[in-house]
Amino acid sequence: MIGVIGKRLLTTLLILLGVSLIVFLLLQLVPGDPAITILGAGATAESVAAVRDELGLNHPLPVQFVDYLGGLIRGDLGRSLTVNAPVSDIMIPRFVNTMILTGAALVLCIVIGVPLGVLAARKQYSVFDRISMFTALSGASVPVYWFGLLLIGVFSIQLGWLPTSGMYNSRNPGGLGDLLSHLLLPAIAAALVPLAVIARMTRSVMIEVLQQDYIRTLRASGLSERSVLWRHALRNALPPIVNVIGLQVGYLLGGVVFVEVVFGWPGLGQQLYTSINQRDIPVVQAGVLFIAMSFVAINLFTDSAVGLLDPRTRRTVNA
């Protein structure tokens, strides 16, 4: 198992290197000059040339990329072009806020999606199964930003139950209760599509497991249906369910970009949106790298968890 994790860590490093290269090259295609972004449109040619020289923008692209990687290895993400502050000071608090939103959405996906799929599988072809899966399919087809605006319109504007935006009350910031009241709507919006996918996948896997011979044997032995369903069938269905949950976390990390913009949540997504409009390349690079690192780390954790739950996976990988 240790050897498998070591190989995956090496693969992770190679993926991050590839992501860094792709992001670096793509941002070179973004129109606009970082030096003009810093100095303003009225800057003289001499000032622009001096800033470009200071930032190393006059060097060939391979040299710039090597300098960029060297900074990453040292933990130096550069400085923001718009606020002239270390990128790490800007992005780390934003990253924490994004993880709070992603974590809350993931909890909703698991707490609602998995039981919904299990019960739908238990009552296959029933009215509950058809309604729940139709709802899940409809939810997976709804644009996240539209659903977020719908939630704001109903629960914030019409009913006035929850705040429309932000992470805390700007006038009188509270504690955990204030955070939760601001977190609920964006978490629901972010969880909509992954929850639907998890519910449908759980149903599909559970239907297959419930048709196995050992399930019939457990039922024939007099074991309660509740124990058969939740202790035995779900336990054997966990590896593919955990795998799809890990994949949906990656979707969450991408989907919260839209959710954060709609709800004004001060996370990576909102910062990326602002920095792209401002052509703040170091901040954009760092934001994409943070998301890529999170996605790869979660996949590594998911693969390890699936290996622990299903020994057959470990034997396949070692083979």
Automatic annotation (TrEMBL):
Q: Which residues form the ABC transmembrane type-1 domain?
A: 95-302
Which UniProt keywords are given for this protein, alphabetically ordered?
A: Cell membrane, Membrane, Transmembrane, Transmembrane helix, Transport
Membrane-spanning segments:
99-121, 133-159, 179-199, 241-263, 283-302
Q: Where located?
A: Cell membrane
| InterPro entries assigned | BPD_transp_1_N, MetI-like, MetI-like_sf
Protein's GO biological process: transmembrane transport
Protein name, as recorded: ABC transporter permease
- Major subcellular location class: membrane
Q: What is this entry's stated membrane topology?
A: Multi-pass membrane protein
Family per record: Belongs to the binding-protein-dependent transport system permease family.
Question: Cross-referenced PROSITE patterns, in alphabetical order?
Answer: ABC_TM1
Q: Which Pfam families match?
A: BPD_transp_1, BPD_transp_1_N
**Which top-level group of life is the source organism from?**
Bacteria
Spell out the CDD domains in the cross-references: TM_PBP2 (cd06261)
